[in-house]
Amino acid sequence: MLLTISTTHSPATDLGYLLVKHPDRVQSFETTGGTAHVFYPRADVERCTVALLLEIDPVELARPAKGHHGSALGRYVNDRPYVASSLLSVALGKVFRSALNGTSRDRAELADTAIPLEIEVPAVPCRGGGAIVERLFAPLGWTVTTTTVPLDPEFPDWGDSPYIQLRLTGTLRLADALNHLYVLLPVLDDAKHYWVDQDEVDKLLRAGDGWLGDHPDRELIARRYLAGRRSLTQSALERLRGVDEQAEDVDAPADAVERAEAAERRTPLVRLRTAAVLAALAESGAARVLDLGCGPGALLLALDAEPRYTRIVGADVSAAALAIAERRLKFDRKSDRQRARLTLIQTALTYHDDRLRGFDAAVLMEVIEHLDEARLPALERAVFGHAAPGAVIVTTPNVEYNARYETLDGHRHHDHRFEWTRAEFAAWSARVAETFGYTVDLRPVGDLDQELGSPTQLAFFRRAA
Asked: Which residues form the Hen1 N-terminal domain (predicted)?
C-alpha cells in the first residue's frame, strides 16, 4: 500500500526536516505485519514529495495475534497488503512520530505553520463511498477528490469495486494532516487488524486533539475507529464533551451513540433538517437568502447548488467557522460573478447590522439554543425587527425527544445553553410573531414519536400582509 505527501512550500525540501527523513536516503522500518519504506520521488526547492510504501508480509499478517479478519479463511484471503487501512495508520504513527506530534528540532517554527499539502492514496477501502470521504475530510479544510476503482477495467459490466483513489489538497499544518490520516483511514475502512481496547480511546483523543471535538461526524468517527464497541465509543464521546470548548459558535450536532449506530441505516437527522429548511424556503418563494449562524457552511453548500437563489449571505460570529465554510465552498475557484452571488460576513446576531437588511428570507438552523436565553430578545430585535426579512425559518432541538436517546446525559451538544419542549418553543414562536408582525407555522422534523414528538422542531415565520 502506498501514500504520498507533497508540498510546494518554499523551499519544498523543508518537508524532509519536518518528517525527520532525509530526501537523499531510502529508509526502512519494521512495523506491524511488514516493512515500511520511506523515499522521495521528487525533492527540489519547487516541489517535494515523500512516499510511504508499506510492504506487507502475508505470513506474518496471518498469525493469530495479528488481528481479526472475520473468519478463519479471512486470515489468508484479504485485501490488507494492497489497500490503505489501520496497518498504514500504524505505520504512520511509527515512521512519522515526531511529525505527528508537531515537533521539529530543525524547523520548529515551520512545524507550527500551515503549508500547502497534497496527499494521494491510490487504493482506500471505503464503506459509504466518496460521499463519506467528503463528510469526513471537508470539514477539516481539505478539498477532496475521489475516483472509484472499477473491479476490472477490461470488464466494465462487472461494476465498481469498494475502493477509491483519494486525493486531498489543502493548506494545513503537517501535524494536523498526519493526525487526520491516522484517525480517518481506519474509519473509512471500518475495520482494524488488532484488538481494540481502552488504549484506543486515548489514541483517538490524542490524535483528534483540536479537531475531533468540532467535527460534525465525530460520533461516526469514534464508533468506527473503536470497532463499533459501544462502551468505548460512549467513553470517547463523554470525554470529548468534557474537554471540547472550541465550538461555541459552530453547530456540530452531538446525538447519542444510538443515533450514530443508526446513521447509515436511515437518513441522518441533519439531512432531514436541511431538507425541511430548503422546502420551507422554496415555499416562501425567496430568491435572496440569509443563513444566520451559518457555521462551517453545511446549509450554504445546499443553497449554493440551487440556482433559484440569486443572493446568498452566510453570517457567523466565528472567524474560524467562516474560514472552514470558505474552503468547503471553494471560494478560490469561484468567478467574480459567483462571489457576488454568495458572500460570507462576520457579525454577531444580537446586534443590528444593516448588511442583513433587504432579504426575502433568513434561516436560523440550530442556532438559538447556542445563546443564553437572556440574550434571545436581542437576537429577536436584530433579526425580526431590524433585518426584517420576508420569512424566517428557525429550527431547534425538541428536548422531550431526548428521552429516546438512552445514553444521552444532558443536552445534545455541549454548547447548548438550553433545549426547549414543544410547548416552550410554540410559546416563544407565538410571542415573536405577534411582536414583530409575522404569522408562524410549527412543523416537526425527523421521526415522529406519538408521545414525544419529533427530534427537531421548525418554526416557519412569514411577514403578515
From this structure: 1-240
